[in-house]
Each structure stands twice: as C-alpha cells, then as structure tokens.
Design a protein that fits this description.
Blueprint (H helix, E strand, L loop, with lengths): L1 H5 L4 H28 L3 H34 L8 H29 L5 H4 L1 H37 L1
Length: 160
C-alpha cells in the first residue's frame, strides 16, 4: 500500500514526480557545488542559475538513461520482501551514484561552456563531494517531497 500511495501510477504522475525531483535537485545541488568550487557569491550564484536550464535538461535525460541500470544495481542489494524505506534508500543511492558519475564531468563542461580534460583529471577529487551533496539532497529533500506530492495526489483521487 505504501508503494502505491507514494509512487507514480501512470505517465502523467511519473512526469510530475520526475519534474519535482529534478527541479528541486538542480536548484539546490548546482548552487552548492558551484559555491564550493568557486566561492559563495552573488555573481557565482547567478552564473549557476544561468546554467540551470541546460543542467536540468541533462539531468532529465540522464534519469531516463540510468533508470534501468540503477534498478538492476538496486536488485543486487534488496530482497523480495525489503521494506518500502529500504527500497527507496537503495534506489536513491544507486540512481545518484550512476548519475553523479556522469554529471560530475558533464556539469563542469556546461558551467565552463567548454569541453576540457580538467573535470576528468580532477574527477576523483570532486566526485565524492558531489556524490555526497547529491545523495543528501535527494534522500532528505527532493525524493521525500516528491513522494509527499504523490501521496497527496492519490489521497485526493481516493476521496473524490
């Protein structure tokens, strides 16, 4: 029951769910990582905001691309009777892991508006920090709010 109440049930709900998560994630994660990398200032924040539409498109595309591999990876750690919370946490860890591997490089290129070897050369320095930030935002903010929205949508549907 908890799975059905808090997760999307059709394409429209899936798009809303993905929209909530991706918009929250991009608007929180990008400024934090930019600030840590370049310093927290209004010009750096505005630069991050200016790049957010391109980052958001990349995130949405990457969600679609990494969904199946993340599900396969999640199944390695979950049992058939795993609880809703453990399933959501493992799914989040696997999704964020795969996406952060790509986005650590891709978002650096988007932000710099230049494809260089710098993000690749510094990958193992930057990726753990980026992964931790993304995992915290996803697990504690974006995913819970999106599941709350689904729960409220389903509650309104049931009571109508």
């Amino acid at each position: 029951m908890e799975f059905q109440q808090k997760l999307p049930q059709n394409l429209k709900e899936s798009l809303i769910f993905m929209g909530i998560i991706s918009i929250l994630s991009v608007n929180i994660i990008a400024p934090i990582i930019t600030g840590l990398q370049m310093g927290f200032s209004i010009p750096h924040y505005l630069m991050a905001v200016h790049n957010m539409p391109f980052i958001w498109i990349s995130v949405v595309a990457l969600v679609v691309i990494t969904q199946k591999p993340a599900e396969r990876l999640s199944r390695r750690f979950l049992k058939q009777d795993s609880s809703f919370r453990s399933t959501m946490l493992i799914n989040t860890i696997c999704n964020v892991l795969l996406m952060s591997l790509v986005l650590t490089i891709l978002c650096s290129w988007i932000g710099a508006r230049n494809i260089t070897m710098e993000p690749i050369n510094h990958f193992f320095i930057k990726w753990p920090r980026n992964y931790a930030i993304a995992l915290i935002v996803e697990a504690l903010i974006a995913q819970p709010l999106a599941r709350l929205a689904m729960s409220l949508m389903h509650r309104n549907t049931i009571s109508d």
